[in-house]
């Protein structure tokens, strides 16, 4: 009843003397402060819209244009060449017509200049030849281009300032895509198989292909990005199989360091760091992420919009991503119980020490789970259709709907795990593998896999995250996680006894326990989903290891791309493991374009295969070095082409989608899109190296993250290049090989 009393802002009673109002000034004060915070956010958003709306100009430049026009008019000159007079004729005012018409003309001129500047910036950002130039051999054209880009973007941009100036993803010519495709599969096919595939490609190009291409070009003219919406829908949201392991991925804590062993304290700092990052995103205070090879080229920031307050909700045929403007709480799971933890009090963000205090209250709560509550999260780990049916039938009304809404509308999800994890004990390597599996799937019911991301805080203070894939790709989540780890360890810090810094307001209301009424039918489906998820989790194997014999420093001395070196090494490892080559997927980003996501680099190339064969056949060292350099240069070229919109797979995927809409079948496209990716690879980039001082803090090394295998008989390989002397690998596979088809 105490909580109910605090929630009432005023009470009244009727007496013989009249009405007696009893105001709760504390409650009214909280309402006032919460309202002030809300209005501050609205004003900030409006201000940011204006600033980024006129970028690369500034709002103050309008005043400069107005003063310049008025000054020329004062000197008896007409800079408008008669336009001001024509505007004056259409104004209904009797007084001040000249001044008002000059202001209207100045505003129109200012807007025209902004559009012209934005068009010029867009043209400049469409230039990608710089990426193909050799290091140290920059052309004069590129030097002039860099100068112009810096000149036009010299003002300090907000997070989304460049969005309208980014170019649209181009649609490659069908002939170019098909020729690149045939080149990519040549080392994987016998001569008869390659001849057959060439005939299929030629038939597709001469007949159905051009028809599909016309529709695709029409979409490219109309849509912001001709790939991204279909990619999100058909690759992610329309999948009816479990997203746990198959889609979601994970990120790990520091390798050697755990800043505190106090679980509640680590949770307090981690939640605070995440909310500080959200504040920066909302205020657009984050610097736009730029391309690693250039300090002037911005990347698309659209994926940041749905980072927080976002949930994937299940549907019958397709899931839906729901995003809310704001959320003042996080959802917490501990020992089978769900809680709502308010992170604001009277419009003020709770301090890390206060969050630690609230988390400790949850840890100390002796209550037991309600019937069916403990394993409720298994519904998000199983097939999507049963989860949709249960959600529609049993979670669309009453207390179940209220509790589910709280989870889905939360800023993010937090699991207070009752296990210890990390590289520890007598078996550090084995424990590291178990750490990866725990983050990938946990107990299959103690994560909420539908949330945009879930944070896991272990009993020994180790942490990590599990991210849903449809709303964004790993580099965006990695950017968030880098900030979180650095802010936790180096900015917020801990006291000597491992607790969060700051004071505690012990009058804070307790975290709210969520209530459920879970009938027997739902409990039965929970058991079914959990059995399915557990089978999937038991089948996946993870191995995480830091490679420290050498790193990118030694590779760069050989004038070879570190990424190309690792990809070639993976081909060599696969060849030695399986005795052959396979179709290999390496993720490359296309965020040089507006709303860009990823493209595939088919890194099993003719040049790479030639090097591997030469090395395995005992060719001379000189010959192997020459072939290695050719393979590296070839891989870099493939990567650059994928980044600049000249990839293969997204174009073919979209042509396939168009064919389905038209109701026509293509034997060529059907075969291409059914080929299994037995080796799926991805590099986790370090984008904010300035946050980590590895010289003075060498133990604060990021482990990166990983994902499950794509094919039943394949491998998933994620790697992160840390500093100059270390590469961390995350390798996953399945215990029981299937028939090689993609799940």
Automatic annotation (TrEMBL):
EC number(s) stated in the UniProt entry for this protein: 2.3.1.21
Catalyzed chemical reaction(s): (R)-carnitine + hexadecanoyl-CoA = O-hexadecanoyl-(R)-carnitine + CoA
Protein name in UniProt: carnitine O-palmitoyltransferase
Bilayer-crossing regions: 54-75, 95-121
GO biological-process terms attached to the record: carnitine metabolic process; fatty acid beta-oxidation; long-chain fatty acid transport
Active-site residues from the entry: 469
One cellular-component annotation, GO: mitochondrial outer membrane
UniProt keyword Cell cycle present: no
Organism per entry: Periophthalmus magnuspinnatus
Pathway: Lipid metabolism; fatty acid beta-oxidation
Topology relative to the membrane: Multi-pass membrane protein
Family of the protein in this entry: Belongs to the carnitine/choline acetyltransferase family.
Lineage: Eukaryota, Metazoa, Chordata, Craniata, Vertebrata
Domain Choline/carnitine acyltransferase stretches: 169-735
């Amino acid at each position: 009843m105490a909580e109910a009393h605090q929630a009432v802002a005023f009470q009244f009673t009727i007496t013989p003397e009249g009405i007696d109002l009893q105001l709760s000034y504390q409650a009214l004060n909280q309402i006032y402060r919460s309202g002030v915070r809300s209005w501050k956010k609205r004003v900030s958003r409006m201000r940011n819209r204006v600033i980024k709306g006129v970028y690369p100009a500034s709002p103050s430049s309008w005043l400069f244009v107005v003063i310049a026009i008025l000054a020329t008019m004062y000197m008896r000159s007409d800079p408008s060449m008669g336009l001001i007079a024509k505007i004056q004729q259409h104004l209904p005012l009797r007084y001040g017509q000249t001044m008002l018409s000059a202001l209207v003309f100045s505003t129109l001129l200012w807007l025209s200049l902004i559009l012209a500047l934005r068009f010029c910036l867009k043209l400049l950002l469409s230039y990608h030849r710089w990426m193909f130039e050799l290091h140290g051999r920059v052309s004069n054209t590129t030097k002039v281009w860099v100068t112009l880009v810096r000149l036009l973007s010299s003002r300090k941009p907000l997070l989304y300032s460049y969005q309208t100036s980014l170019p649209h993803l181009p649609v490659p010519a069908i002939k170019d895509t098909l020729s690149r495709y045939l080149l990519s599969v040549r080392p994987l096919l016998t001569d008869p198989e390659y001849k057959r595939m060439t005939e299929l490609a030629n038939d597709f190009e001469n007949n159905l292909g051009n028809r599909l291409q016309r529709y695709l070009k029409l979409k490219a003219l109309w849509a912001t990005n001709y790939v991204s919406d279909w990619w999100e829908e058909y690759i992610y949201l329309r999948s009816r199989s479990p997203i746990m392991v198959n889609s979601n991925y994970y990120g790990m804590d520091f390798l050697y360091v755990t800043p505190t062993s106090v679980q509640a304290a680590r949770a307090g700092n981690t939640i605070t760091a995440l909310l500080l990052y959200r504040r920066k995103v909302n205020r657009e205070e984050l610097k736009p992420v730029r391309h690693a090879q250039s300090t002037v080229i911005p990347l698309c920031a659209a994926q940041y919009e749905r980072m927080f307050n976002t949930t994937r909700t299940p549907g019958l045929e397709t899931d839906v991503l729901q995003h809310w403007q704001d959320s003042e709480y996080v959802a917490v799971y501990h020992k089978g119980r769900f809680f709502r933890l308010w992170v604001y009090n009277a419009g003020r963000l709770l301090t890390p020490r206060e969050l630690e205090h609230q988390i400790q209250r949850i840890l100390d709560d002796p209550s037991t789970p309600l019937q069916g509550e403990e394993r409720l999260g298994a519904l998000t780990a199983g097939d999507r259709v049963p989860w949709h049916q249960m959600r529609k039938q049993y979670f669309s009304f009453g207390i179940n709907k209220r509790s589910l809404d709280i989870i889905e509308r939360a800023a993010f999800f937090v699991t207070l795990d009752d296990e210890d994890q990390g590289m520890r004990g007598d078996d550090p390597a084995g424990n590291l593998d178990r750490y990866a599996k725990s983050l990938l799937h946990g107990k299959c019911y103690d994560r909420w896999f539908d949330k945009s991301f879930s944070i896991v805080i272990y009993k020994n203070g180790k942490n990590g995250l599990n991210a849903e894939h449809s709303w964004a790709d790993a580099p965006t989540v990695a950017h968030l996680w880098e900030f979180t780890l650095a802010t936790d360890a180096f900015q917020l810090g801990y006291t000597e006894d491992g607790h969060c810094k700051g004071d505690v307001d012990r009058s804070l209301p307790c975290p709210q326990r969520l209530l459920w009424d879970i009938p027997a039918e739902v409990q039965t489906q929970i058991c079914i989903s959990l059995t399915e998820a557990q089978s999937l989790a038991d089948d996946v194997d993870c191995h995480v290891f830091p490679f420290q014999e050498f790193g990118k420093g030694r590779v760069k001395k050989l004038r070879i791309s570190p990424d190309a070196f690792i990809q070639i090494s993976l081909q060599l490892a696969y060849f030695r493991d399986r005795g052959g080559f396979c179709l290999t997927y390496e993720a490359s980003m296309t965020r040089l374009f507006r709303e860009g996501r990823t493209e595939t680099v088919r890194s099993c190339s003719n040049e790479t295969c030639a090097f591997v064969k030469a090395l395995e056949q005992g060719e001379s060292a000189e010959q192997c070095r020459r072939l290695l350099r050719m393979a590296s240069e070839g891989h870099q070229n493939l990567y650059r082409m994928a980044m600049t919109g000249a990839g293969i797979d997204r174009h073919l995927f979209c042509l396939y989608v168009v064919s389905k809409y038209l109701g026509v079948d293509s034997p060529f496209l059907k075969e291409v899109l059914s080929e299994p990716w037995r080796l799926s690879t991805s590099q986790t980039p370090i984008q904010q190296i300035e946050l980590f001082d590895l010289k003075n803090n060498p133990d604060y090394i990021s482990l990166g993250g990983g994902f499950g295998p794509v094919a039943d008989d394949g491998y998933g390989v994620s790697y992160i290049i840390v500093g100059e002397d270390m590469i961390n690998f995350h390798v996953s596979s399945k215990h029981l090989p299937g028939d090689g088809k993609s799940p």
